[in-house]
Amino acid sequence: MALQYKNKINKIRGFALGLIFAGMILMYLGLFFKGTEWAMVTLMMLGVIAIIFSTVVYFWIGMLSTKAVVVTCPSCEKQTKMLGRVDACMHCRQPLTMDRSLEGKEFDERYNSKKHQKELEQ
Ligand SMILES: [Zn+2]
């Protein structure tokens, strides 16, 4: 069974895109409630909030991207950005690690968590 792990930046980007669509759908639904003012206003507001939130998420990705490390994927030889100690390639989802001690180990998203790290040390 192939591990479906996504690159973090791609994952957040997908989330932000989903929010924009959700916002547009909510506003579109609001148009069907022209007769019921409170329902229309509520849906429109939710739609606007979703779109504003997605803008914030996009801004956050921009911030994260500056901290991301650009590496060349050993598997597809394309350049990819990674966050944290372990991440996946943006193009082929090859698991990548920044930590030599984790090389060759089973891929585990928990390596990014500080809590899990402490548990291992004990
Ligand atoms: Zn790759």
Automatic annotation (TrEMBL):
UniProt keyword annotation of Oxidoreductase present: no
Mode of membrane association: Multi-pass membrane protein
InterPro entries documented for this protein: UPF0295 (IPR020912)
The keyword Cytoplasm appears for this protein: no
Domain of life: Bacteria
Protein name: UPF0295 protein GH754_14780
Cellular compartment(s): Cell membrane
Family from the record: Belongs to the UPF0295 family.
GO cellular component assignments: plasma membrane
Natural source organism: Salinibacillus xinjiangensis
Residue spans crossing the bilayer: 12-33, 39-61
Keywords assigned: Cell membrane, Membrane, Transmembrane, Transmembrane helix
